[in-house]
Amino acid sequence: xxxxxxxxxxxxxxxxxxxxxxxxxxxxxxxxxxxxxxxxxxxxxxxxxxxxxxxxxxxxxxxxxxxxxxxxxxxxxxxxxxxxxxxxxxxxxxxxxxxxxxxxxxxxxxxxxxxxxxxxxxxxxxxxxxxxxxxxxxxxxxxxxxxxxxxxxx
Length: 154
What we know:
Blueprint: H1 2-12, H2 19-67, H3 88-96, H4 105-111, H5 130-135, H6 142-153
């Protein structure tokens, strides 16, 4: 009987299934396991992106409301597409819209009042920050504003 059991194990595998089915089951189980892990990771990544966008939108809504605007642009974590003719200065301006740590007077004044005596823009119409430059600074020409709008809208 022990010999017969050993022969059956060799033919049918440890689970009592034929060897060919056992191998197929292992592959199916492995694929299912990989699919579950993939869904957990992607679900977590998607949830993190949504949460980040919600926090960012909330912050931007407060900033725009403080500046006197009725609504703020909708935020997104998608990649920006810069036209080939975009200047480095304009790229820096657009990218500075996404961080408070930048080279604009409003930020620099906060951290070194001796180096920069005022946070005001050179135009004299408000503090120099990305929102001011994009929406109301007369020193930024309309062509650049249109390029910025195109970059952010695409």
